[in-house]
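Q: I'm writing a short explainer about Methyltransferase type 11 for a general audience and would like to include a description of its predicted shape. Could you first generate the structure from this sequence?
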Amino acid sequence: MAQFHFVEDYEALVSQLLRDHPLDEAMSLAVGGDYERVGAIESAILAYAGLKDGDIVFDLGCGSGRLANALGQRHRIDYYGTDVVQALLDYAAKKSPANYRFRLNRELSIPMLPHSVDIACAFSVFTHLLQAESYVYLREMRRALKPGGRVVFSFLEFAAPEHWSAFKDTLANQHKGVNSHLNMFME
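A: Of course. Here's the predicted structure. Afterward I'll give you a sentence or two in plain language.
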């Protein structure tokens, strides 16, 4: 059985997408597709969680910037995004306000000072990590949060019927010997 590793998996995926698709399409597909619509949904989720102008947002696994792009259209915030693939960060920086900061980070840590973040988020990140890695990142997010700060994240859930296709695709790829990115489920 193939071993998963989140850095190499995503570097390979992004390289393949860039070879096979125009840039904008590749960058959308790299974060699951439907770039603008999903970014707007994620932005609305943060607003529902209490995001307000002047907040500091940390985005773990910011990818090609779909959330950053959407936030930049609606909010005046300080934004910090990290990802494990430089090509995604470069694209995100081009699609986002000039004051937004993006950083390559391949460590199981968050490059933020303690108690410095109002909202820490991880959309579609923990899905691709082992549970122990997700736990380390959640602990790091808690360390970085200001008192009263919030963590927002999404994940695949076995109880959600629409998530079963990701599980089936992962199993099919493993059976074929195809090394694809990891899809983990939480309950």
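A: For your explainer, you could say: The chain has one domain: 6-156+163-176.
Q: Perfect, that's easy to follow.
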